[in-house]
Amino acid sequence: MRRAHNILVLAALICALPGCSPVAAVNAPAARPLAVQQKATGSRDGNLAVLAGKLRTSSRTPVNIVQFGDSHTAADLFSGEMRRLLQSQYGDGGIGFVAATPVPGTRYDNLILKTARRQWELVSARNQQSTQFPLGGYLSVPLAANPSVRLEAREPSAQRYRISALYQARENSSLTARGGQNAARRVMLAASNGQWRFSPPLNSISLPVDMSLNAHPGTVLGGWYIQGQKNAGVTYSALGINGARLEVQDKWQAGWQENLKALRPDLIILAYGTNEAFDNTLDMAKYRDQLRRTVAQLKRVQPRAVILLVGPSDSIKQRGARTCATRRPQSLPQVVQIQRQVARQANVLFWDWQAYMGGECSIARWQAEGLARGDLVHLTADGYRKSASGLYDYLRGQLGLR
């Protein structure tokens, strides 16, 4: 019943925009992929040099990183440690892009989202069939006249931020920031003609802050982009969905890559593969084509960004099986190999997480050492921190920053 209600909410929301029917809204055809350039628009070495240069001058230059992924990313422990390592070395550029309202089972390492009950309806691309979701895959529908969200730093900080909302509005609405040390200030959310767009930023905001939406019907939020006011240092956005595969991006509104442009990513990380590996019926040719298309689209839209594929971590599916080959997910070796091949052919980076852990069935040893959880799929906080240290060293080596 809850699932049916969410689908109806999403259909009603989208149909608040002109020229839409409920059936078309929920069962819309898949977003048309962007045209793919056959020739790369920038060399790998050139992009790595640009990113390395920005990190070297990060005291006066912003460096933006966006990681897409599944539950390993949604926990923001792996990405959170990457953020901590980078920001401690190259400066704190802000919190990054986060969902608009709390997402059950998802956390942010440096931010807490709070809302009152019955103010918002959260709709997730994880379990809904539509192609109207925003960048990140979470859509927050107002249920009250003036719903609000409190943004709190997980650790006290004197830093001030520029905060923009990713939104969709049928007619002009407004957003107000107040509370804490902030004098009330407001920005308009101009009618967006059915498209997702970022609002003008609210400047010099300290946390905690209450963000209140004065919404007309047809206004919804897709997330917050929280940047440091100084416009320097590293911003690391973790866009994870529990249970997600790479194909979840097909549910995002066509042209979502234009919203990604607004984050000005210098490094884009794709950290999918665990859920694909657990699918014994995975169509490998289709998966390879999908990954190639996604990488090509990102290179087309962000030709100067470094792209990094993070392979799935090691995992065990059949605990009682006698051999490693029968204990591990059947599709895991092929998923890793496809990612490696696509990265090589597309001239982008690939980090083999499973190999870093020690190869097939190494997660059993990690679990014995307190680095992996009992499900033999996810890691403990210490395990994610250890993995992030490995990825951080790999990235710095590729950038020549050792």
Automatic annotation (TrEMBL):
Entry keyword Secreted: no
Domain SGNH hydrolase-type esterase: 233-385
Superkingdom to which the source organism belongs: Bacteria
Pfam families recorded: Ape1_N, Lipase_GDSL_2
InterPro entries reported for this sequence: Ape1_N (IPR055041), Ester_Hydrolysis_Enzymes (IPR051532), SGNH_hydro (IPR013830), SGNH_hydro_sf (IPR036514)
CDD domains: SGNH_hydrolase_peri1
Residues in the signal sequence: 1-25
UniProt keyword annotations, A-Z: Signal
Residue ranges annotated for the Peptidoglycan O-acetylesterase N-terminal domain, each copy included: 93-200
GO terms, molecular function: hydrolase activity, acting on ester bonds
Record-given protein name: Lysophospholipase L1-like esterase
Organism (species): Pseudomonas putida (Arthrobacter siderocapsulatus)
